[in-house]
User: What shape does this take?
Amino acid sequence: MSRVRGLVCSLATLALAASCGTPLTEVLLVVDTDLAVPDELDEVRIDLIGPDASLKRSEGRLMEASELPKTLAIVHRGGPLGPVRVTVTGLRNGRNVVQRRASFFFVEGEVRILRLDLLDACTGLACRSDETCGPNGCRPIDVEEGELRPYDERHAGRFDGGARDAAARSDGGCVAEAEVCNDEDDDCDGESDETFDLETDMQNCGSCGRRCPTTPDNASSRCEAGECALTCDPGFADCDGEVETGCEAALSEAATCGDCDTACDGAAPLCDATADGFACVASCATGTTECSGACVDTTSNPRHCRTCGTVCTPPDNAVATCVASECGFECDAGFADCDGDPADGCESDLRELDNCGVCGVTCSRANGIASCASGTCELVGCDPLFGDCDGVDETGCEADLSADLARCGTCTNACVSDPTNASVACEMGSCTLTCDAGFGSCDGTNATGCETSLAGTESCGGCGIRCEDPTPICESLSGGGYACTDGCSGMLCGESCVDTDADPLHCGACDDACPDAPNASPTCSGGSCGFTCDEGFDDCNTMESDGCEVDLRSSLSDCGTCGMACPAADHAVATCDMGSCGYECETGWADCNGVASDGCEVDTTSDPSHCGECDAACTLGSRATGVDCVDRACVITGCEAPYEDCNGTVSDGCEANTDASTSHCGGCRMACDTGRQTCCTGTCTGPPPHCR
Assistant: This one.
């Protein structure tokens, strides 16, 4: 490394710069980088042009990040205070990578600091001739006095010359996770809690974490318009207005006879059922028994089942029943007894992913986030780099957006086709250009491809890297790339020093550029033009005129390599995905045996062993006599009398006793008048709680 004397004190650490004395008028230049050292940057070159037009250069190798920052003390030795022009260039293996420029005036009698950090954001950015790249993009080269900070060693501290953090993300560092209700954007889609309906969600009713009671006494609960609400079981009421206590009042009791405000006493101390509900009476009718002030039928009253005071206790998420003097239960709406075990009652919430809407139906969506909050399986979000591009809920997030040129990052984002002087790829959901040798994308726009030649003095080896005295010539390097030099070892074509045997911009002679070919990069060898195919493409017809005409990643006739045709399969459509042959089953068919030769051999619309999907077998539930697969769903085809399958859930069989159920009296969904009627042998009759 050369040491520059006169204008420059030293290029070393801050301590060495200070050892040159304490000058009255000085600017301390501080250079650092956020590029990885030495993998992305291994040399720093500083060119100075003083007020007297004298040229000075200092350069040094970087072997490790601990050598940063580099400092250069620029001392005023008399004469004009400026302007002083500074060009700082970062190099890798002798090739220009990034450049910053500045022009300043000394502040007489003061030591000031000028920071010119070589930023990753400045690589590939071309600014006007009177501008340079800064932390916020292009800015004027001229540095105002107020921008030169008074000397303070804190302003000359370490920036970051190490490897970039592997966890850093271009989207601001958001790491996608499943969305939870917490007022935060967990899945990184720009929205918070979007998968939760606070108007109806039992676990988050009105606000995150506000839970409605799941097993209120004598009632079922719901979230309605953001408030917890109750649906009382027949013959009960919520007289205290507290959701947590459920429907605590029995309307058949003397204290709350028919409604919350009626108490029986005096000449009519008993409560009995009437055609209109309940009324205070003097004595119980024939066929009923007096139990604690209530006239009841002990064969059907769940609070006095068989004998007075024998209370049928409902399990979780159910209403108690008394049928033929035996206790039982019916599941609340939205719940079911999926395991068939009466001991744990209606244990399954039919808004859960494992039992969505009906027992045994799993709610899931390919590459996505599914929700069964409404009792119906719905797609509410996609995994990172997947999208729901067909708009069909059942297919989930079927589109891989990580590498698809037609749908890169989003369903509608297509990468530019056959960009100028470049090849294009979709990498992790972002369209990226790979420029042909000698070109750069200096306008930052993919649509224009790599529009700038890097063989000129305005962008030599990198966008915006200008060749000025003392190195005014842009020369091509033997290993590839360009750098500013003070002489030409090859042929001088304008201001570019080139090898006409190998330079595709000057192939055989100055300005004889090799032509572009579709999906290819031009080459020059021995002064003759050719081309190499972009990654994923090939010249299968060997015709130069159409370049590399085949996309090997998706061509059914040339999949992965020229001539490799993807075969057809029964009930399937052949595919070529990223250069590998495969097939997709037609709707309603599946490949359940994994054997490619017989394609998609199973009809999932009607096969009871593979109903809707492979290995989803239809099985007989309790009291069911037959089961079949119809339109991809298992259905019960027969039940033992008087039971029927009223909830459509195959796993719990024929769950409804149509002789006694007030919800299904005489048949499915034939409900009795809530609170006014009971079901006796399949007929709605009289008020609860007894049959007559």
Notes: The CA atoms of residues 555 and 576 lie 6 Å apart.
